[in-house]
Amino acid sequence: MRFGPFLKLYTSYIKDFSSSCATLDEARKKYPAFDAYVREFEASERCAQLQVKHYMLKPIQRLPQYRMLLDDYLKHLPTTSPDFGTEDAPKALKIVSEVASHANDTIRNEESFEKLFHLQEKLIGSIEIVKPGRILLKQGELFKLSRKEPQSRFLFLLNDILLYTIPIQNGTFKLSASLPLAGMKVLKPTQEAYENEFSIITVEKSFTLSGRTHTERDAWLDAISTAIEDNATKRSTFNAFRHAQMKNSTAVAVKLGSKAPIWIPDTRVTMCMVCTSEFTVTWRRHHCRACGKVVCSNCSANKAPLAYRKYASVRVCDQCYDMLLEDFQRADEEDIRASLSLMTDDVYGTARECCSLSLDDLRGRYKKTSVLRRVRNVPQRLKEVQANDAGSDISGYLYKRIKKHKWIRLWFVVKDNVLYAYKASEDVAALETLPLLGYKVSMATEEYDGVEASLVFELLHKGKVMLAFHTENTTARERWLSTLEEATVLS
User: Fold this and answer.
1) Tens digits of residue pLDDT in 11-33
2) How far is the C-alpha of 420 from the C-alpha of 395, rounded, in Å?
3) Which residues, at least 6 apart from 464, have a Cβ–Cβ distance to it below 8 Å?
């Protein structure tokens, strides 16, 4: 027991084991005479047909062997033994166990350091990621949903930050953003059609990512959520955090303008989400910098200062402009001053710039522009339910037969016994509605216009034209069949 603590010297040997083996291999390649001597030595009887590396490994194996030996010794210690009933053997086991744990911790820390060091070499960007206590938890490729099409991104999740990078050639990565886990929120969409996606919301940057499968998506969700919670615990955050974070896994309430919004991809909207005017080649899409909605130029002509942009005056939609201006007018001067004092430096500016702002400066950054409005007369029944309605019975893409051998892909929503059809999944007005009461749902029994029967279903009603639809897989068809059968009868 007196010499037990000196066993910690094994830690240095264990830590350098990999480099020692690499040095041996390099020396054998560089010096043929030395390699010949080693092979001759390994072939001798004294080596018992084992390589030198096997003997180099034995000191590493001794610590767990000492612990197992002492553990078995105590379990089978006879009552007649001098050690029975004394504290010597248990203390020896405790010392060896502590030394083994210390060695394991050292190895883990060394491995973490090496991972961070290798990551630092791969990153192109001004950031120092090698810090005491920092650990690489998860890494992998995901796809960012951009305005036009998904783009490859590589994420590195550490225990205090999330590195958002762009993969480039030769295994290197361009750093796009370093996002602190403090204040970060994650959520997944409610629509089943987007089961591979999840969103990350931070003050500086918010975006939606997609995995190749929903299993991969869930693994990232769990890893990031756990890292956020662990980070908050270490930073002695309020006990209410855990409860709030669980709630935010599906819905996040963020004060308008305080954090970067998630931009809705252009491909998921065919009309202005404020006035419903349809986008064309000349009538272009614009994104509100406050809420992320896709709007037309007329509905985003106003500008307002946003907190996450260091109160720079940026383009916002009419709805957000009114809400932001109302919040500013109702706020107390002390509250505004307090929010300015909490600013930190980031890509949008420095905290000092914000602290120097006066109320008149902020008020002057609300800029309202008068424009000639387009008016599109859309029946109220088409605007009752939006395509992304969270309270719907089911939603997703279906193919609808419009004539022989002609199918069109539309977004459908079932709510309150009505089937709504939309051009895209974020449109705010439907193309058409169909009350489902009285309809009969039928499954196709044979190939239908080039589509296999297992994907096709029909809606039948006496005196009305039969409607045919097909899904992309059989699982989706079963979900739609079940929901539509319930929606066609009055419950």
Assistant:
1) 777 777 777 888 888 899 999 99
2) 9
3) none
